[in-house]
Every structure is written in C-alpha cells, then in structure tokens.
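Lecture 7 notes: from sequence to structure.
We start with the chain below.
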Amino acid sequence: MIELSNIHLRLPSLAGEVHILRGIDFSLDAGAAAALVGPSGSGKSTMMMVLAGLERPSEGTVAVAGQELTAMNEDTLAVFRRDTIGIVFQNFHLVPTMTALENVAMPLEFAGRADAFDMAKDGLAQVGLSHRLTHYPAQLSGGEQQRVALARACAARPRLILADEPTGNLDGDTGTAVMDLLFHMRDELDITLLLITHDPVLAERCGRIVRMADGRIADHGLAPAVAAE
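Predicted structure tokens for the same chain:
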C-alpha cells in the first residue's frame, strides 16, 4: 500500500537550507497497521505529509496503492487523496460553521456523490453520533469532535488512513475509546493504517513500530505483542 524510496525533504530558512527527511525508505502492506514513533522534530509528521501528497519531497519517490504521487499534478493528486486516503489530525480540523453531518458529507459532495448525506448519516451512526447530526463542533466534546473527524476520514471508504496523534487532545479514557473505534473501523473496512503516537501502549496495538530520529528511520519491526506470538 505504501512505498517510500530514498525520500529527502529540504526546505529553505533564514538560517539556510534545512534537511528534514534524510533518505527515508519505508513500505507497508495493504491491510497492515504501523505506529510511527520518535521524539518531536524527528520528521514523523513531515513523513506523513509527504505520504498524503501534501508536501512534495525534494528527492525520491512516493507510491500509494500502486500510484506514484510524485508524478501527479496538483489536481490529480487532490482527486487521488480524496478517493484513497483518509486523514485524522490531533486538532480535529472540523469546519466550525458546519454541523457534524455537513462536515462528514463535505468530502463526499466534492466527490460528486448524490447520496453524500445518507453516507454521512451512516458514518456518524457507526461512531455513535446519530444524536449529534445537527450539532456544530463547538457544541461537541473533544471526543465527539474526534469521532466526527474519524467518520469523515472513513466516509469515502479509503484504502489508507493516516492518523497524526489522534488522541493528543483527549483524556486517557476518551482517547482509548476513540482508538478502539478507529481499530474497529479499520478491521471492518480492511483499511491500511499508519499512526503517529507518543503513547507506547497505543503503538503496541499496531503490528509494527517504526522509530524515527533526525529525519531517518532508526529502527522498525514487529510490535512486542506480535513478535511474541
């Protein structure tokens, strides 16, 4: 599902060029789950941005679902991302002036789905929010907002979900409930998952743990629970 080959990312700054990613090679099979861990500033979120096609690498190739993102123009990339990749952020990124239903329906409407609102209702029902369809983000708890974001990410049945610290703004119990839901939906829809987290317990729920440091992959392998089987 994912194939990164010799990914470098260099960005200009007032102090000179900054080398953020330094030769990343990484692959992840379809249907698998991997946790991306490492200290702040190690390049985790940047690597995810490259995978989502939101940041173009300075060097190397990015392939997702057999398609090379580095060969696509911006319009083609936007359509591919809409149809193939779901993204869940730490800060929810819901549109504050839209209801929960409208937030989930929005990407489906962009995709031209005539049944966008019916699909959005089904998606919100899957995350237990049928009673919150007409509520705005400010009227929802943090956990409810993240569940709306999860419903939106899964609404178009993506093949890949990229989740960047999805429990970072939630308390422990709420975060656990949201992640239980994410793993349930991943299993139900057979979605590939790449998850950034600082939580070692959450990382171990994935089949692989990939450690980053200084813009490189320092180590990767099976999560301890999987390795012990």
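Points to note: The chain has one domain: 33-53+73-227. Residues 69 and 75 are 11 Å apart (CA to CA).
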